[in-house]
Give the backbone structure.
Amino acid sequence: MILGIETSCDETAAAVITQEGAIRSSVVSSQADLHARYGGVVPEVASRRHLELVVPVVRAALAEGEATLDDVELVAVTAGPGLIGALLVGVAAAKALAWSRRLPLAAVDHLQGHVASLYLEPDPLEPPFVCLLASGGHTLLLDVRDRSARPRVLGSTLDDAAGEAFDKGARLLGLGYPGGAAVDRLAREGDPDAYAFPVARVPGLDFSFSGLKTSLLYAVRELDADEVEPRRADLAASYQRAIVRALVERTREAAASVRAERIAVVGGVAANSELRAALPDAALAPLPLCTDNAAMIASAARFTGAISYPRYLALDAYASSA
Amino acid sequence: MLILAFDTATEVATSALVSDGEVVGERVSRASTLLEDVDALLRQGGAHPSGIDALAVGVGPGSFTGVRVGLATARGLALALGVPVAGVSTLASLAAGAPGALPVIDARRREVFVLQDGEPRVLSPAAVEVAAGVVCVGNGAVRYRGMLEEAGAVIPPDGDERHLPRARFHAALAGEFGLAEAVEPLYLRLPDADTTVAR
Ligand SMILES: [Zn+2]
């Protein structure tokens, strides 16, 4: 049994999976409500909450997985990238759990964790494939050749992440935080062709979403206050269409550039219904595993290697991959 | 009774293993290597983690991140070992290590944490009341040495061990041992959400 722990941003999560990749439990305690009033994640607020939740979440994952610590053979924890103060809570707790029982510890890269959400039962994906990782913090195109090696980055965002673009758009439309799901819901009632929001074409396989947000801002400003409400669904639908189109085009280009036959999508934005519909042939992370969770961290640990006792005792978290 | 004590609220991590009131060993390093120290202390004492009876952990005040690393470690150990935990004020440990002295911990943003009338407070260093000849200890005393000495305080040399919240005193001060999750961090400051809200 593998115990996974994830605290890199605003979800405190723990999971129990088997060595074969079957999920026994995956507990996620989201802090979204806590951060909503600030309109985004406040690192110090997130870190305080992680400390309150990390042990209760581990307890819940063990209970739901009908396991005890005696069944755990490996502890897996997100070591980075993410909010450093948030990561340190999970890393400290994971090291303490592993040390107490002389268990090995896997220090998992959060991004490899997202990719490894595709390797879980009941439908594990076999590389090679090109993976779009799109979330509030990341927009990456990855060339995944095997499960254990760090994938090559084919493209990334030059400014905002795709999930960030959704959040900022939602704020301009008065939809609150987090905004991805709210834009998705509202867009279903709107006309995606009502507005032509241009997405910047940058060279290579990179993305740029900051101009899109500005276009939306101008479109909203041009309307009188009483005109915004009736056009909100059209604005949301057109805005979402522009983001999804950019993601889909670049992902297909990336796949062609490395002659990959399969495309996969992971990360919070992979839950977007229009994106899912636009890539009918893609392997998509199961909905509960799109946003941050610990099952994907435990899954990655199966392939990226564990550190044996006592070599992990000086392990530190890292904020960025660079 | 074998007590493992540690404190990571300041820029150093202190740890101690105390058996029936006798200090088996003490170490000083950084928060990221706290468990290396703990591991070494246990080997030094010929003990296994399962031999630990209770934990004493520094709850701050100090660096928010440091306080959390200490408490997350304590809670993880308590869960895995099934042992109770006592929280000990980092200021109280400093005070215990230097009887009669005023403990002063750096609170960043040009403020310090001090014990005033027995209560932990956050103050500007200029507002700390020091009677002439009073000894000040802690990383705040070292940082604001000039200001405090001018006010009449006596500050031991920078390397003096009285500036460290040594974990042997956490073990000695530990009162009630109880549930790890009931041991709360002593932040003394709200998160400054207004200045850190994402753009
Ligand atoms: Zn993520």
Observations:
- The pocket of zinc ion is lined by residues A 110, 114, 135, 292 (CB under 6 Å).
